[in-house]
Amino acid sequence: MKAKIWQRRGCTMKRSLGKLSKRTRLLRKRSRTELTVSGRLKSFKLGDSVHLTPRGGKSMPHPRYRGRTGRVVGMRGSAYEVEITDMNAVKRLIIDGVHLTKVRV
Question: Could you tell me the domains of the chain?
């Protein structure tokens, strides 16, 4: 797939096609809250239902999975293994606890 070229007054610039392109509106913070220490130290048990809420940063999961709900099936170091369904495929994502919110049942 060729990258589109942006032209304005004779300037040309190759368009970025990274994983965050076209996603800035979806990922912007709607409130002025900062990430707190208690948010960083959240813990989940095996079998908990969690909601994926990307909070930015290097460990952020792919924006494709934004808003998905999954189940904690294990741990990898300090990160959690979360199992989600993508259409009919079952996928396991390794996600930092900052990007997870517990679902109340």
Answer: 37-105 (2.30.30.70)
